[in-house]
Amino acid sequence: MRFESLIGFALLVVAGLWPLRAAAQMYAAIFNFGDSLADAGNLVVDGIPEYLATARLPYGMTYFGYPTGRVSDGRLVVDFIAQELGLPLLPPSKAHNASFHRGANFAITGGTSLDTSFFEAHGMGHTVWNSGSLHTQLRWFEDMKPSICNSPKECRDLFRRSLFIVGEFGGNDYAAALGAFLPLQKVHTFVPHIVDSIGKGIEKLIAEGAVELVVPGVLPIGCFPVYLSIFLKQRPEMYGPRSGCIKDLNTLSWVHNALLQRKIAELRKKHPGVRIMYADYYTAVTQFVLHADNWGFLKQTPRTCCGAPGVGQYNFNLTSKCGEPGAYACDDPSNHWNWDGVHLTEAAYGHIAKGWLYGPFADPPILEARQR
Question: Is Cell membrane found in the keyword set (predicted)?
Fold first, then answer.
C-alpha cells in the first residue's frame, strides 16, 4: 500500500467513516423475509389481481414514480438498508430472469408467522389471507439455493457473509384473530405460538449457515387507522391520552415484542457464534406519534396520507382504501408517518432503517454488531 493510501486510510478511521465502508463491503448479500412491510413485488410478479389496489398509483409515487408491489409511497426499510450497505435493491424472489447472487427478498404481502392450518384449527380460516408463511418462504429459500451456489460448502460460505432479515412476522397473524373479533384474551394465547414459530425459522437459517440475523418486532397496532376505525366505539379511557392509540391493542404488540426478545436471548445463548439483532418498529412508530415534530411529521391524530374521509379524523375508509376510487394521497407524504392506514410512508421507513443500522431502534444496531 502506498504511503498516501495509508494516510487516507488513517484519516478515514479517525473520521469514523471506515467502519461503515468496511461493513458494507463485508456483506456479500441480503436475504429478506416478511410480509407487506417488506414485499418488493412478490405478490404481483405473475400479474396484478383485479382486486389489488396496492399495485396502483399512488403506491410508488415518491421514489419509483410507479407501483412496484411495495405497499408504500416509495422505498421500504430493507431498500434503505441495502442502499446504505452498498448493495442493489433486492429483487423479489419470484422475479423472472433476475440475479439473486447479491440477495433476494422473499417477503410477500399477507405473509404470516404461522401456517394456514393453525388458523383453520382455531376458527380463523375465513379471516386469514396467507400468501406465504415464514416457513413457506423458507422453502422458497431452499429451492433457490441451487441457482446461487454450486455446493453446500459454497452456500454456507455465502450465507456466513450475508445479512438475514427475518420479518416482521406476526402482524397478519394478529390481524386474522382481530378480524374474527375473537376476545382479546384469546388472541393473547396465540402470542407464544407466533413467537415460537419465528424462533424455529431463525434456527432453520442458522442451520443453513446464517450468522447475522435481524429480527424485527411488530408495530404498535393500536396506533393504526385501520384498527382505530374498526374499533371506534371504545370507551374514552381505552385510548392513550397523548397518543390517541388503543391501549389494549398496543399492549398486545408489546407482549409479542417482549416474548420475541426473550426468545432472541435464548437463541443467543444457544448459538454464541451467531449475532441476532432485535429490530424495533414499536418504539419508532410510538416516537412518530408522540414526538412528530422531531421527525418532520405533522402533529396530528394518527391519520393516513392516502385514504378517504371515513370514521373520525383518521382519513381512512374501509370501502374506499388507498388506490381505490374515492381515495387520494396527501400533497406531501414526507410529513406523514402513516401511508394507507396499515403501512408506513417512505419517510418513516427511512428513519427506521437508520435506527436499525446505527441505533437507537435496534439491539444491537446492525453496523455496531458488524464492527466488533
Answer: no
